[in-house]
Design goal:
Methionyl-tRNA Fmet Formyltransferase, Chain A, domain 2; 2-enoyl-CoA Hydratase, Chain A, domain 1; binds coenzyme A; six-stranded antiparallel beta sheet; 3 domains; Rossmann fold; single chain; alpha/beta; six-stranded mixed beta sheet
Length: about 575
């Protein structure tokens, strides 16, 4: 079928839906819902059989839904309506939640149900539920609905049908959740309630709070098991996060956003937002084997396998975070492990250099440089591992430099549902580094590399395996994936297997180094990056500004709007595509 994705932004769910539908053989186009006129124009150009809206913030125009079947993916159970579906479910501690695929009509979220899926609701941040359970359920329900539609056997359920309730988890209309619903009363709320409030608001809009004499929004909450103090008091800091006492314990807050007078603000590590106000707050070292606390990087060894987890918030890696990870990686190299597994985090593997920290710095060009050098040092450390085999285990999505960081490992495996964005160009024509000019040709030929880098499209794990970018797509769920990776790593650590592979890799690296030293690749990439950061062309700085401030698109980027490409480009489009 010809399927058009109508979206507010090409977000993670839209990208996954795009990848899956392409894989099923459908012809896809993407249109950004900029305004009614351009949406109508895009639809008229593509003439879709079906329109799917995985991520849309306003109602589809009547002129569109009255002519084409339009499917809305709503992150709620049947009957649930409103813009804060997941927020309410998390805040109210629902045990089960779901996703509904419904047909657009004149009333928001009230159309006929084409399919739905339910899942157990984890106690976790909204963005984590969205990127995992919601995404998997949405893809399943949507594919089922489209298959039935194509075969002509679809039986939509009317939301007005009162029998819908029989045996089905049923929701109802909920208003938008306001800050007053999210507000924390530090003198009353328990740790569990505080965590739920922050989880329900993470990654947006955050919980508005008052701390050290300023209004801040809170994100990234973790329970602390041992520290105690007067409720609301700051007890300590660690790697950019602060720990705050509650009535029955304490929580770590990793990120905050202070809103400026112009309404803009950047989400940053908490201590960067609080600045001098936390200068005297003690640094709390990690006590090994302590129960629950916040750890930015976790290294654990099981037999001959070392597992390195780095769940950096949003997968963004600042210069300081890269250095801390490099130090931890060096410790893994010095251990007696025979295999090192790089796990990234559960919601993002890595998205490359930290664009928010760069944007907030005094000199974004200098900070970009510091960050890419630190990232390159990390990649180099992995590439020059001569005593261990390395595996990058991508349970979650990766983008830009994060993908090339993964390629530094000896083998790269991803969970089946993972989406990769192995390109830099979307960030203002950034050239990219992370030794990609060495790493990519090891796996792809020039034509495939060009398709990947210039096309700027997301690819599913299955597609990445098919083109040879990664070695395998394993497991449907995170638990399945972790289990399969653990077994694979144990097999790799078997002394016979390990020594044969290790000598082959060391020999290959030596040959490669003799042909062209890694330093030459790095120097050549950094020469381009220097121009990106310090040169006359400001595209990278402009693109980064728009990215971190989430500026809405004024038109659909032409790399996505295939249906608009056949027409001659207007001057304005040429200048901005
Ligand atoms: N630095 C800082 N923050 C980043 C980031 C980065 N490199 N990559 C993603 N984020 C943040 C976003 O700002 C967003 O923040 P939020 O919590 O306020 O919502 C969050 O991570 C999720 O990103 P989003 O773009 O909404 O996710 P997505 O799944 O729709 O798209 C990517 C994934 C990777 C395509 C997209 O995030 C991206 O292009 N990131 C930038 C990659 C890059 O150019 N890195 C620099 C060069 S190495």
């Amino acid at each position: 079928m010809r399927i058009m994705l109508l979206v507010e932004a090409f977000n993670s769910l839209s990208q996954r839906v795009y990848g899956e539908l392409v894989r099923c053989g459908h012809e896809l186009a993407v249109e950004f819902d900029v305004n009614t006129e351009s949406t109508q124009q895009g639809v008229a150009l593509f003439k879709p059989d079906v329109i799917v809206a995985p991520y849309l913030k306003r109602a589809i125009p009547r002129t569109v839904w009255s002519r084409y079947p339009c499917l809305i993916i709503h992150p709620g159970i049947p009957g649930d309506r409103g813009p804060s579906a997941l927020d309410w479910a998390i805040l109210e501690g629902r045990r089960e939640w779901g996703v509904t695929v419904l047909q657009a009509n004149e009333e928001l979220d009230a159309g006929d149900i084409w399919a739905f899926e339910t899942f157990p609701l984890r106690i976790a941040p909204k963005s984590s539920i969205y990127r995992n359970e919601v995404t998997e359920a949405a893809v399943k329900a949507l594919c089922r609905a489209l298959t039935s539609y194509k075969r002509g056997v679809l039986r939509p359920l009317s939301q007005r049908d009162t029998t819908l309730g029989a045996g089905i988890l049923r929701g109802y209309h909920r208003p938008a959740m306001m800050q007053v619903d999210r507000a924390i009363d530090w003198g009353q709320d328990t740790t569990e309630v505080i965590l739920r409030k922050i989880y329900a608001s993470d990654s947006a809009p955050g919980v508005r709070d008052w701390l050290c004499g300023r209004t801040v929004y809170l994100y990234g909450a973790w329970k602390e098991a041992t520290l105690r103090g007067i409720p609301g008091a700051l007890l300590g800091q660690r790697d950019g996060a602060v720990c705050r006492a509650t009535v029955d314990g304490a929580v770590w807050i990793t990120h905050m956003q202070a809103v400026q007078q112009d309404g803009r603000g950047l989400k940053l590590p908490a201590t960067a937002v609080l600045g001098d106000a936390v200068a005297d707050v003690p640094c709390i070292p990690i006590v090994q084997n302590s129960t629950e606390t916040w750890r930015e990087i976790v290294r654990e060894q099981e037999g001959a396998v070392c597992h390195l987890h780095f769940p950096f918030y949003n997968g963004a890696m600042s210069a300081d975070q890269c250095r801390r990870l490099t130090d931890e990686y060096k410790r893994a190299k010095e251990s007696d492990a025979r295999v090192i597994v790089l796990h990234g985090g559960p919601d993002h593997w890595s998205n490359g250099i930290h664009l928010h920290v760069i944007e907030a710095s005094e000199s974004p060009a200098d900070e970009s440089w510091r960050n890419i050098e630190a990232m390159n040092d990390l990649v180099l450390e992995i590439l020059s591992t001569t005593r261990q085999m390395t595996i990058a285990a991508l349970c979650a999505n990766a983008g830009a430099g994060g993908v090339f960081l993964a390629l530094a490992a000896d083998a790269v495996y991803a969970r089946q549902g993972v989406v990769l964005n192995p390109h830099y160009k979307n960030m203002g024509n950034l050239y990219g580094s992370e030794y990609w000019t060495y790493l990519l040709p090891r796996r792809l030929d020039a034509e495939e590399s060009d398709w990947l880098l210039q096309g700027r499209l997301p690819i599913t794990a299955a597609k990445a395996v098919a083109v040879g970018l990664i070695d395998g797509a394993l497991g449907r769920t995170p638990a399945e994936f972790r289990d399969m990776i653990a077994r694979l790593a144990r097999a790799w650590a078997h002394p016979d297997f390990w020594s044969a592979r290790l000598s082959a890799k060391v020999a290959r690296r030596e040959e490669d180094e003799a042909r062209r030293p890694l330093g030459a690749y790095r120097a050549a990439e950094l020469a381009h990056m220097r121009r990106n950061f310090y040169g006359f062309d400001r595209s990278y700085h402009v693109a980064r500004y728009h990215f971190v401030h989430k500026t809405l698109h004024a038109h659909t980027p032409l790399y996505l709007a295939t249906h608009r490409r056949a027409r001659p480009l207007t001057q304005a489009q040429e200048g901005t595509s």
